[in-house]
Automatic annotation (TrEMBL):
Organism field: Prymnesium parvum
Official protein name in the record: Peroxisomal membrane protein PEX16
Keyword set, alphabetical order: Membrane, Peroxisome, Peroxisome biogenesis
Coiled coil regions in record: none
GO cellular component, one term: peroxisomal membrane
One GO biological process term: peroxisome fission
Amino acid sequence: MASVVVLQKLSASADFRDKLLKALQYSAKLAAALLRRWSRTRQSEHVPTLQSAAKTISTARRFVTLLRWVKYIETLREARDEPHAEVRYLLLLDFCLCTAVDALQDLVTLDRLGFFGKPNRLPVAVESLANHLDIMLAANGMTVTTLRLVRLRQERKLAHSKQASAGKVEAVVQAERLALLKYTCDLLKCLDSAGMLQSPRQREKPSSRPSGPEGLAAFAAVLSSTMSARKLFIKALK
């Protein structure tokens, strides 16, 4: 019965579905990149199928995350309760960036559906802006996590000096380390989405042979989404 309750919680979570779809999407992209790089024929017959699957899953993710920005009100509560001013300001920035990115992505989704009259009426700059704000969001998350790690390490030293139980602090430190790894992966993925890992020549003349950063960014996205899904799964168990 408990397992059914957990599944119900997960099925009701748009975030969990999004992370699973994201893992599938970038797994397909990673597999396609590896096949393109190592295939003897340089163009495996499975590559177009994998690339098409990645695009289809990406479209599905857009519908799953539609209006997701509404939930970020929780970040405001977290910022309000944050005792350290520098982290509080960064959490407020996180709220603004999260809301802006998801709202812009919603506009792109509605535009592709023809909500504004004809499909693809919005300028490409709208999605480009969302991608660049996403980079700022990942970098901001890394900064917040780093500040928290510095503070937690100080608390851990204090706990040891007082011969207090540091087990709880250590668990939080490990969680923040994983969060830092996740944000690093997110940053790499966002840089790739914005085309910042490619040289101008590569952007002008895409090669049939993928660049190293492309596969690395796909792997980072798979790792990040898997970590997020795991976190949501553990939360559902509680």
